[in-house]
Amino acid sequence: xxxxxxxxxxxxxxxxxxxxxxxxxxxxxxxxxxxxxxxxxxxxxxxxxxxxxxxxxxxxxxxxxxxxxxxxxxxxxxxxxxxxxxxxxxxxxxxxxxxxxxxxxxxxxxxxxxxxxxxxxxxxxxxxxxxxxxxxxxxxxxxxxxxxxxxxxxxxxxxxxxxxxxxxxxxxxxxxxxxxxxxxxxxxxxxxxxxxxxxxxxxxxxxxxxxxxxxxxxxxxxx
Length: 223
What we know:
Elements lengths: L12 H6 L6 H15 L7 H8 L3 H7 L3 H15 L2 H11 L3 H16 L8 H9 L4 H23 L5 H20 L5 H15 L20
């Protein structure tokens, strides 16, 4: 999710008209939110534009969502379920049973994501930065991000690392920092962060072997 100042000449346009009619109104609204929030900031997208882009009636919109904030919450939940947090955890578990290796796989997933041509900033980080940590949308974003940290803490404990909570907090800083660096244009951000994570594992009493660098197919799971 990145800010842009591009205007929408045809708010309904071919996007909405070309969507299959059998797609439910709620899904069309969320698809419109995904498109518009990727182009601009959340605050810059109004309810009327969401309605027009989704090609639904106002009464239909409010039949599914009481407010724009509810749309954003549903959008974040969908990101969590299918595109980001759960995708990272699933790929780590699919790749290896070794908890130390799984900690490094996290950065392989990020590396593949950062190298995609359609890479956009993490929706949770972008929403939290835009709305602030005390706004309900910021709080929801922080909660989703915390699940990655909790996963790291569990892996660190399973790997027998010293002070797993401190390790998870430190490693989480590396993941979030690499996302910001990637948005700035550094496609090697995850590779560098992975090296620092390996050093961090050593500091906390573990041992990690780095595989060859390069993009991971796991990045295809992330949006």
